From TrEMBL:
Its job: Mediates influx of magnesium ions. Alternates between open and closed states. Activated by low cytoplasmic Mg(2+) levels. Inactive when cytoplasmic Mg(2+) levels are high.
CDD domains hit by this protein: MtCorA-like (cd12830)
Classification via SUPFAM superfamilies: CorA soluble domain-like (SSF143865), Magnesium transport protein CorA, transmembrane region (SSF144083)
Species of provenance: Neomicrococcus aestuarii
Any single Gene Ontology cellular-component annotation: plasma membrane
Name of the protein described by the UniProt record: Magnesium transporter
Location of the protein in the cell: Cell membrane
Lineage, broadest ranks: Bacteria, Bacillati, Actinomycetota, Actinomycetes, Micrococcales
Amino acid sequence: MPIVDHAIYVQGKRIPTPDDFRQTLEIMHAEDGVCWMGLYRPTPDEIHEVAEEFDLHELAVEDTLESHQRAKMDQYGEHTFVVLRPARYLDDVEKVEFGELHVYVGPDFVITVRQAEVPELSPVRHRMEEEVDLLTMGPPAILYAILDQVVDEYEPVADGLEKDIEEIEAELFTGNAHVSRRIYELFREVVEFQRATAPLERVVSLLRRRITGEASDSNPFLEFRERDFLRSTTTSGPVSEAETREHERIIELDRHYRDVHDHIMRINERVVQMKSLLTNALSLSSTLSSQSSAEAGVEQNEQMKKISSWAAILFAPSLIGSIYGMNFNHMPELQWVAGYPLALSLMFVLSFGLWAIFKHNKWL
C-alpha cells in the first residue's frame, strides 16, 4: 500500500508504530491514541481496504475514487470529509499547477489521500510533532495544520499571478498580437485558482463552529468532556480545573483556525482583484485591437485612393494612345500634320488635370 507515513500519537507524542496498518489500528485502540496516515495515489482496492478498516462513508470514498472534486467539506456522522485543492506556481513556465488532497477526519484518526505532488505534507507532520501541546488537541489540530499549509502555499501562487498581470499590463500598448490570448489563458488560471480558494472560507467557518461547539451535540470535533464543559458554562455548577484546561484548548485551537480563515479571506480578496484587473485588461485589449483594425482600414483606404488616382492618370494617355494605335486606313488625324503633337499635348493636359484634381482632394 502506498503509505507515505503513518503514526500513532498519544498525548501529542509519537510512539513506535508497526508497518502494517492493521496492527497500527490495534495499537491505536489499545493506547487510546490518534492515528495519522498519509496515502499517495492509492489504487481503488487500497482505498476500499482503508475505508473498511476505518469505517469511512461510501459517498466520501466514491469522491476519492472519482477525484477531480471541488474544494468542500462533508459531514458523515462522526467523520468529516474535506477536499482541498492545493496549488503551486511554476515560475519557469509561468503556470499554476493544481493538486487534490482528500482528508478524512474521525474522532481518533486523520487520513490524507494525495492525488498529486502538491502539497508536501512531511513538513506539516514534522512541525506538528514539535508542537506537542497543539498535537494533543487531536484530529482537529492536525486538520488545522494541513489547512494552514495549503493556504500558506496559495501566497506565492497569488504573487506569481499578480506578477504576470503586471507584465500583461505593460504589454498592452506595445501592439503584441499575442497579448489577448495570454490574458485569456491567465484569466482561466485565476478562475481555477478561485475555485480552489473561495470554498475554503466557508469550510473554515464551519470547522470553527464545530470546534467552539456551536454545532449539534453530534459534533465529532468535540470530546464528550468538552461538550459537557460547554453545557456546564451555562449552568451555575462549578467548573473543574481539567474542564478549564479543555476550554482553553478549544479557544486556542479556534485562534489557529481563525488565523487560517483571515488568511484565506485575504487570498480571496486578491483573487477577486486579479479577476477585475484581467477583465479590464481584456476589455482594453479588445478596444485597442478594434482601434488598430480601424486605423489599418483607414490606411488601406488611403493607399487605395493613391492607387486609383494614379490608375486614372495613366488611363487618359493610355486611352488616347490605344485609339490612335489601331492603324485603321480611314483615320483623318493620322494624316494631319499637327496630329502627333496634339495627341501628346492632350495626353499631358488630361494627365496633369487629373493629377491636379486628385492633389486638390488630397488623394495624392
